[in-house]
Design a protein that fits this description.
This protein has helices at about 1-65, 80-85, 90-100, 100-105, 125-130, 135-160, 285-295, and strands at about 70, 115-120, 175, 195, 205, 210-215, 225-230, 235-245, 250, 255-260, 270-275, 285. By secondary structure, the protein is of the alpha+beta class. It folds into 2 domains: about 70-160, LysM domain (Membrane-bound Lytic Murein Transglycosylase D, Chain A); about 175-295, Glucose Permease (Domain IIA) (Distorted Sandwich), CATH 2.70.70.10. The strands form 2 sheets. Strands 3, 4, 5, 6, 7, 8, 9, 10, 11 and 12 form a 10-stranded antiparallel sheet that branches. Helix 2 crosses helix 3. The longest helix is centred in the N-terminal third of the chain and has 65 residues, at about 1-65. The radius of gyration is 46 Å and the shape is elongated.
Length: about 300
């Protein structure tokens, strides 16, 4: 019995030791696995955190880079003035460099309404321009369009010169006696101008820009004004009640030169209006035809 007990004890001890070793081995084996799992799990988390942090860092940078300022050119602007007023680093050369495709080859030629990119963003359009070759061509074509626009503006100006460059001498007037109407009451045997029937005190306007040749009393014409225009023709306004201009004065289209009246040889208030080839009586041409040839609707 004691011998069996001795045999059992060692066996039991061996068995226990084996379990302990196995347990230790299991624990030893489990620890690396747990450690490895923990490390593996920590790596994605750290990466995500790092990526998030990086994104957060990049985002403000991108946001900062994306900040742009657009400036619309106003009348009287020039690049140096814009650079100074808008505090652009690099001055007008920076603005021109960043907006060359829109401005064109001459930095001194910028027109009102043109949109300019100012500041840090200005470099970005240049980087994105090569990325869009098709957009670059329209941009290059834009100056051509701008030129076409300029030509169009010139045409418009010419058209304006043919219409808005001239105006009626009085608003809302009714024509009384037409040009060339025959009659013994006129020393030339016919009416040398066109009469616009208006009440006394009606504003009389210069039909176009020009220079006042004479302003004062004109005998049978009463108070009159004679103006020379750019095309070499002269306009005459007679029977006025008062004058607002004097000889030698420059006037613009539509500028008030006096008020209508009934001075001189008249039977009632009206404006006697003539167009002449010289400032003197006897060189008259058809005033209505003249106004119509300059785009003014008469009658």
């Amino acid at each position: 019995m004691p011998a069996k007990g001795k045999h059992r004890r060692p066996k039991s001890l061996r068995f226990t030791r084996t379990i302990a070793v196995a347990g230790t081995g299991g624990a030893a084996l489990a620890l690396p696995l747990l450690g490895a799992t923990g490390a593996h799990a920590a790596t994605p988390a750290a990466a995500v955190a790092q990526h998030t942090q990086k994104s957060a860092t990049v985002a403000p940078a991108a946001a900062k880079a994306g900040t742009s300022k657009t400036y619309a050119v106003k009348a009287g602007d020039y690049l140096a003035k814009i650079a100074d007023e808008q505090h652009v680093n690099g001055g007008w050369k920076k603005i021109y460099s960043d907006n060359r495709s829109a401005i064109g080859s001459d930095p001194s030629l910028i027109h009102p309404g043109l949109k300019l990119s100012l500041g840090a963003k200005a470099a970005a359009p240049q980087a994105s321009a090569p990325a869009k070759p098709s957009a670059a061509k329209p941009a290059a074509a834009k100056p051509a369009t701008a030129k076409a626009g300029t030509a169009s503006t010139d045409t418009k100006t010419a058209a304006v010169g043919n219409s808005s460059g001239y105006t009626l001498p009085v608003d809302g007037a009714v024509i009384g006696t037409n040009y060339k109407v025959a009659g013994s009451m006129w020393s030339s045997g016919y009416h040398t101008g066109t009469d616009f029937v208006v009440p006394t005190g009606t504003t009389i306007k210069s039909i176009a820009a020009g220079t006042v040749v004479s302003a004062g009393w004109g005998g049978a014409y009463g108070n009159q004004v004679v103006i020379q225009h750019a095309d070499g023709r002269y306009s005459q306004y007679a029977h006025m009640s008062s004058l607002s201009v004097s000889a030698g004065q420059t006037v613009t289209e539509g500028q008030q030169i006096g008020l209508s009246g009934a001075t001189g040889n008249v039977t009632g208030p009206h404006l006697h209006f003539e167009i002449r080839t010289t400032p003197d009586y006897g060189s008259d041409i058809d005033p209505v035809a003249y106004l119509r040839s300059h785009g003014v609707a008469v009658g």
